[in-house]
Amino acid sequence: MDATKPGSKAGALAASALDKGRERGLRSLLLGIFILGTISLTPGLAKALKGNAEPIFLVQAGMVVASAAFYGSKGIRSRALFYACSLAVLAFSCASFALQGPLSEGMIWLMAAPLVSSLLLGARLGFATLLTVFGFGLSLMLIQSPSLAAWQAPLSAHPSAIFISAFTIDAFLVAALALFTREAQQAAKRASELERELSLMEARLKGQDTELALHQAAKALAQDESAKQRALFMALIEHSRDLVMLLDANGRIQLASPAALPLLGLEPEELKGREFFSFICKEEHEDQRAMFASSLVAGLPTFSSVFRLVNTAGAELPVEASGSNYLYNPDISGVLLTLRDLTSQKEAEAKAEFFEHYDQLTLLPNRESFMHEAERAVTIARNRNRVFGVMAIGLDRFKRINDLYGTEAGDRVLKIAAQAIRGAFRNDDIVARYRGDKFFALFPDIRSQEHIKEIIAKAEAAFDQVIRLDLGEEIKLSASIGVALYPNDARNAEDLARNAETALYMAKESGRDRYRLFDAKLNGEILERQKIESALNNAISDKALLPYFQPKVDRNGFIVGAEALVRWKHPSGEIKSPGYFMDVAEKSGSIDSIGQLMLRMTCDMAASWANQGLPQVPVSI
To answer: What pTM was computed for the model?
Structure first.
């Protein structure tokens, strides 16, 4: 990404940093030019001082200390004082240089060190200037000392003495130009780093808590007022998925992030100057204003609240607000408010709560909800001496539908059946999906036997329809029904539901598409059959049904065939013959599953015999 690309916020910030670096380098170059101009004026300054160099050096030393004190300061006045002191040091050094007359070779050697320092430290103009001019002044003062007079005369005649002025000018030029180059390079590097940090910050915002990120950025800005920290802080606001606002102490909006448009329906610029509390719903308006004011008065650094905003369309949106008090921070000077839209969260919570009580496929109440209503109905009927009924409805041959057409078709049948049952009864009658293909209904007030028959007739009529599947297949719906009444058949909700299910089983036993009222005389037999059916289904799943082979032998004693007979290895340890469970299997619809299991296991056994080299014989199942 181009750091100077105008369409990018990060690029614009990086370009700003780059421009500042270039400006700083240009100021350094101009300072070098001022230095050269000062050098050209030194002869007149030297003549005015009348040859006295030692006071010049003392003033120069003081200026060096002052200049060093101002070096690196951020304020405009401090920078100006630094440059002024540096120029003064240079002027006094050049004055002392002009007072000395001819240069000796010793002067040249003594000046070599500060000259090299100037070249090496040219990328830092302030230090280079101080070292160079202070070194020149110190060298000149040492050469002026009487103790060195013995070798001053021979050295002053050295031919290279004439080049020292040129070296001095070159040193300052190199220092200024080197600084300009390095400052420009560092500015470009800082711009690149800034853009990268902004991009990383934007990426982190997608998975990081906005409130935490803003708090960290604001804290860093309070400690470091650099343009980089300021840019990062603003980038956090610009790229936040949550709505971020900066409020004054009265709750007026000073700044808003782009998230204002999707949440409130207004552009950030339209929010400036408006009172934030005007967007809170009327019922919570005053409470939130009071909470905001009391938090500021108490000096709380942070506070949070949950309330509803009203957008321009009049819709109420639940939000979680987190505030951080930065009124004390002059770079922020406000209350930073992060507003997170809780609409999706509230919808998810409501959906989860709904499906705690309702079936996800049919949207009917689930078993838990039905049992709660049944317990409530028992209490009311007991107190008012009433009769109510529980109806169990089971789809006929539903397992076959799943096996033939798949679970998608089965789910569609369940949905249609649920709609049909719900539509057959009154709104105050409770209809629920109990489990699997079973539905339960509760009728709170049974008036007579005729009333029971009317209710059953409505339930039967609900299944008088044909369902057409996607591939054109047609399925004729039918159901078996069982009914149990309070208080005749049971006196609590659990027993009522169990007895209604027993009556349903009796209806299926008698040929399906029928109804039965619960009969206590047959209850023991029905419960035993239900127990066998449940255990048989487990046996099919666990492959506890095994083929036993009865051989066919010819007159010579050779095996010429075999018959596979099904046996059940019962949990009790006994081997049960088909007479124990086959009638239940036929009536429950699991006979087909048993046949498929026997066929598969017999084929596996025949393949095993062939692998062992045994002669192949026909096997009947």
So the answer is: 0.50
